[in-house]
Specification:
Layout (H helix, E strand, L loop, with lengths): L4 E5 L10 H11 L5 H16 L5 H15 L1 H16 L5 H12 L3 E9 H10 L4 E5 L1 E3 L5 E5 L7 H13 L8 E6 L5 H4 L4 E5 L3 H10 L3 E2 L6
Parallel strand pairs: 1-2, 1-6, 2-3, 6-7, 7-8
Antiparallel strand pairs: 4-5
Helix pairs in contact: 1-2, 1-4
């Protein structure tokens, strides 16, 4: 009998009604770190690739981290704090906080698992009170700062399932031994949604909505009033 319950949440457009990675890119343009004519256009193009399930994640990470690599750790971390306060915090919705807390209060292991990099998402996970974060890991240089490359397997598409299995193995667990729930909005997460006991299509894109309907998965409109 499975006695331990693991609940997984995607982040962007699932717990947040926005995409944190895309929003960070837009924010750098707003504060004058990047140009609207160049950076913002490319940033939006990468986002559309993601929505179509066609994202070259390595090319995107090199592009998306170029600004913070140029600015350096101290300036970038300070600007990230401003981004969290001005952009992310206003989009932390009570219904999302309540959903996370509901699973935590039931004694479940709660994890945020996202394709967005850990530099952007670690402080966001903290706002939700979630310690365990599986995010895209960024390679670091000898000084500890970001290189623009990805460390290990990207937590995108089937890579999310791989990264989750790695995380479980480090704890001596396996999916077969756990009751598992996964909330996600994106068709990119179909591999992991298909591997858990209780997949929940949350604020789903059109492709995931169709898949959920076909498979009889529940559909949750967490931000119906957003």
């Amino acid at each position: 009998m499975k006695t331990k319950h693991l609940t997984l949440f995607d982040l962007d457009h699932t717990l947040l009604p926005i995409d944190s990675d895309q929003s960070w890119g837009r924010f750098t343009t707003q504060v004058g770190w990047t140009s609207k004519e160049d950076f913002l256009v490319k940033n939006e193009a990468f986002y559309q690739d993601y929505c179509r399930g066609e994202l070259d994640i390595h090319a995107y990470v090199r592009f998306a981290t170029q600004t913070i690599r140029d600015k350096g750790e101290a300036l970038s971390n300070a600007m990230r704090e401003r981004f969290i306060q001005e952009v992310i915090t206003p989009h932390i919705k009570p219904e999302a906080l309540s959903l996370v807390a509901q699973h935590q209060d039931q004694g479940e292991e709660v994890v945020i698992i996202t394709a967005t990099n850990e530099w952007v998402t670690r402080p966001i996970a903290d706002l939700f009170g979630v310690k365990e974060l599986i995010a895209l890991q960024l390679s670091r240089d000898p000084s500890g700062w970001i290189t623009g490359e990805i460390e290990g397997i990207p937590s995108l598409g089937a890579g999310k399932l791989t990264r989750l299995n790695e995380w479980l193995a480090k704890r001596g667990w396996s999916l077969s031994e756990l009751n598992t729930t996964f909330y996600s909005d994106s068709i990119n997460d179909a591999p992991l949604l298909g591997a858990v006991n209780f997949p929940v299509a949350t604020n789903p894109d059109d492709a995931l909505r169709a898949l959920a309907t076909q498979n009889g998965w529940p559909i949750l409109e967490l931000f119906a009033q957003a």
